[in-house]
Design goal:
Length: 157
Amino acid sequence: MVCASRGRGDPNGRENLSLDAFPSPADLWARYRAWKGLTPEAEEIVLQDYHDDGSDKAPRYYQVNAVNAAIEAIAKGRNRVLLVMATGTGKTFTGCEIAWMERGGPTVNEPQNDGFGQMIITKIVPVSLQGTASLQFLSEGVRWTMVVPASSVLAKN
């Protein structure tokens, strides 16, 4: 194994290890987590699986890198992330999911009629972004989720 250290330790920036000194997967993950500055809370967010649209289509490496960079920034507490992808890089395939959950309040039952606010967040906003949305009244709280193609929310070149 060769560990790159950017000049720390070995003057050539490398450390040669024998097979028996090879770090365990847990040790490698701990090193990566420390290098990225991930807290346990951020790690939980970063390790979530990608949305599977059922098409058996896998994202390209640069799509994965772009999504991972955005998720990592959000996990570290940044509330604004700018993700720019050029024409032909799969913006439509790379999606964006926004979820909001209200917890700890009084028990809320699903209303019998859709109100104006519910229509805005479940129909008008998602349709204007070419996506879908759902509003769930769960025992632990109200959850709103919207899924849109990244091409609808990314900065245009």
